[in-house]
């Protein structure tokens, strides 16, 4: 039965048996869990064959694409499809007229099936805390909240009142307590409100929205043939989308929630097959998703939980027209969650256009700032000095240790040159940039993540959305073109509460950014070299060259 035509009593049954009502005897909304596997008799998906993950591709970075057919397969493929500024297709040169025929539906809320989105029941421990305690907790964790009737933060996983099928997955991984964004973000997301979360990368944002999404899905009617996803997560890059998929797969496993990852630079066939079979969660980059919508391979009529992850990066990459086109395809009474590392006016404008009466949580300052757990070292030098300094720093900080290190360069040519030089010198370096084929980029990332090669040389575009744990050092061989990218680069280390070190080579050609860099260093209580301070004076018009 097509969505929008109503459901029979059995079709309107949620994924979990609804014989137990929500809030029964004042209890949790999750009292409707059923013993055993928890699935009602009309779950049509049946056997395990629907859930087979793909096996890995062939050996080496030219090992060919993965020919498995599981919903979680990662297929190799060509590089870019659209030729825009982003390596996942789309970007600033995107041809928006291409999707002019994809018209926004005319929504009549009175005719749309109702859906459940408020699942939050405040834990007694949370309710018992004084306003003074709540304020002290928020101040301690640098939380700033905006909006009416904001739920109180939780301090443990149990206080979030997640159902057992979610809590069991959390316990398996041995997490001690929620991160700051999770403590406040979970009650906000579970309450069904539109919300904005602003926090640094690596702060735990993915779990802040993915766990509530699983609860949301399990309260909705089962997918019917021809239905699109219930949860849509938009991300700026293929790498980030795949990382989100990994988390969704991990925590949705016990509920047998299916997902797919839709991105450019990979064959469309497996992605179309997943969408046709039906998935509860679709993680997508904007350009490839518009391809699928335009070709009629999926629809967004069932989407009631929309996530815009790294919204600031998506706008930086020129995806705003595509985002607006996509959001217009979704029913207006959906729940929308926007996540961003910064809060520029462009992101704020998008939020005001598409979020209704939203509440907001900021972790840390809204002004651009670096993670205080990162030791920032600035070396003022010439371009000629960089190579020697790089070897010196690798010997000083790595030595015989196998700490993961990312080296950032301004161009693809420089990335290849650095990699070649380091490999000739005996360092296990690999490069990742836009000219590399997708399967080669995948191989490089796998080698880096596994520690088989602990040095990765990258450009900014190729590194966007990459989240690798245990990166100890970041070296800015070339300073980026803007201070935002500097903060984003060094944020690859110091994640999850750990410490890290960044080393930056700053030349006379970077002088225009000296003042902004000094501001970032001061805010984080870092050492400021005298040569860099002199540059801030010179950039205001005084003095001459340093070199």
How does this structure look, described?
The protein is an alpha/beta fold and 547 residues long. It folds into two domains: 109-363, P-loop containing nucleotide triphosphate hydrolases (Rossmann fold, 3-Layer(aba) Sandwich), CATH 3.40.50; 374-538, 3-Layer(aba) Sandwich (Rossmann fold). Helices cover 32% and strands 12% of the residues. 43% of the residues are buried. It is found in: Nucleus. Residues 393-536 form the Helicase C-terminal domain. Belongs to the DEAD box helicase family.
Short account of what is shown:
By secondary structure, this protein is α/β, with parallel strands linked by helices. It contains 18 helices and 14 strands.
Assign the structural class, choosing from mainly alpha, mainly beta, alpha/beta, alpha+beta, or little secondary structure: alpha/beta
Shape: globular
CATH homologous superfamily classification of the largest domain: P-loop containing nucleotide triphosphate hydrolases
Strand runs, count:
14
By CATH reckoning, the class of the largest domain would read Alpha Beta
Classify the helix fraction into a percent range: 25-40%
How many helix segments?
18
The main sheet orders its strands as 1-8-2-7-6-3-5-4
Radius of gyration: 24 Å
Total domains:
2
What is the percentage of strand-forming residues?
A: 5-15%
User: First CA to last CA: what distance?
Assistant: 74 Å
CATH architecture of the largest domain: 3-Layer(aba) Sandwich
Q: Remind me, CATH topology of the largest domain?
A: Rossmann fold
Low-confidence stretches: 1-12, 16-96, 541-547
Mean pLDDT, all residues: 81
Largest sheet data:
8 strands, mixed
Main location: nucleus
Protein name: RNA helicase
Biased composition (Gly residues): 75-92
Motif (Q motif): 155-183
């Amino acid at each position: 039965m097509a969505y929008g035509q109503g459901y029979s009593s059995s079709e309107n049954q949620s994924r979990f048996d609804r014989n137990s009502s929500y809030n029964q005897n004042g209890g949790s909304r999750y009292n409707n869990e059923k013993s055993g596997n928890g699935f009602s008799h009309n779950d049509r998906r049946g056997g395990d064959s629907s859930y087979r993950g793909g096996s890995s591709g062939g050996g080496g970075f030219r090992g060919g694409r993965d020919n498995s057919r599981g919903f979680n397969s990662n297929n190799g493929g060509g590089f870019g499809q659209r030729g825009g500024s982003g390596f996942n297709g789309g970007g600033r040169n995107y041809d928006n007229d291409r999707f002019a025929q994809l018209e926004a539906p005319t929504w009549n809320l009175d005719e749309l099936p109702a859906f459940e989105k408020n699942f939050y029941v405040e834990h007694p421990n949370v309710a018992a805390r004084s306003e003074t305690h709540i304020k002290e907790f928020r101040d301690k964790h640098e939380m700033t909240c905006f909006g009416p009737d904001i739920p109180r933060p939780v301090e443990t996983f149990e206080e979030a009142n997640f159902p057992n099928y979610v809590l069991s997955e959390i316990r398996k991984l041995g997490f001690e307590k929620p991160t700051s964004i999770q403590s406040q973000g979970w009650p906000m997301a579970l309450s069904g409100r539109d919300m904005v979360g602003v926090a640094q990368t690596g702060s735990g944002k993915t779990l802040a929205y993915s766990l509530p999404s699983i609860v949301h899905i399990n309260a909705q009617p089962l997918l019917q043939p021809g239905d699109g996803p219930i949860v849509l997560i938009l991300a700026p890059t293929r790498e980030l989308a795949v990382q989100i998929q990994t988390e969704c797969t991990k925590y949705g496993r016990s509920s047998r929630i299916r997902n797919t990852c839709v991105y450019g630079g990979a064959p469309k066939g497996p992605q179309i097959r997943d969408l046709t079979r039906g998935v509860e969660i679709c993680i997508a980059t904007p350009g490839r998703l518009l391809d699928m919508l335009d070709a009629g391979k999926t629809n967004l009529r069932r989407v009631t939980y929309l996530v815009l992850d790294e919204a600031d990066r998506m706008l930086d990459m020129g995806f705003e027209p595509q985002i607006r086109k996509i959001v217009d395809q979704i029913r207006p009474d959906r729940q929308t969650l926007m996540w961003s590392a910064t809060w520029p006016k462009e992101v704020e404008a998008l939020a005001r256009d598409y979020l209704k009466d939203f509440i907001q949580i900021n972790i840390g300052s809204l002004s651009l700032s670096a993670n205080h757990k990162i030791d920032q070292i600035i070396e003022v030098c010439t371009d000629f000095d960089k190579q020697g300094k790089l070897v010196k720093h690798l010997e000083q900080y790595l030595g015989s240790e196998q700490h993961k290190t990312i080296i950032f360069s301004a161009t693809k040519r420089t990335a290849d040159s650095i990699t070649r030089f380091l490999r000739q010198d005996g360092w296990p370096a690999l490069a990742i940039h836009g000219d590399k084929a997708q399967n080669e980029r995948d191989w490089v990332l796998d080698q880096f993540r596994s520690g088989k090669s602990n040095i990765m040389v990258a450009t900014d575009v190729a590194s966007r959305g990459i989240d690798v744990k245990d990166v100890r050092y970041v070296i800015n061989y070339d300073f980026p073109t803007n201070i935002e990218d500097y903060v984003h680069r060094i944020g690859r280390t110091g994640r999850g509460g750990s410490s890290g070190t960044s080393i930056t080579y700053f030349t006379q050609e970077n002088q225009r950014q000296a003042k902004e860099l000094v501001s970032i260093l001061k805010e984080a209580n870092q050492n400021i070299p005298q040569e860099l301070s002199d540059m801030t004076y010179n950039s205001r018009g005084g003095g001459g060259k340093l070199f």
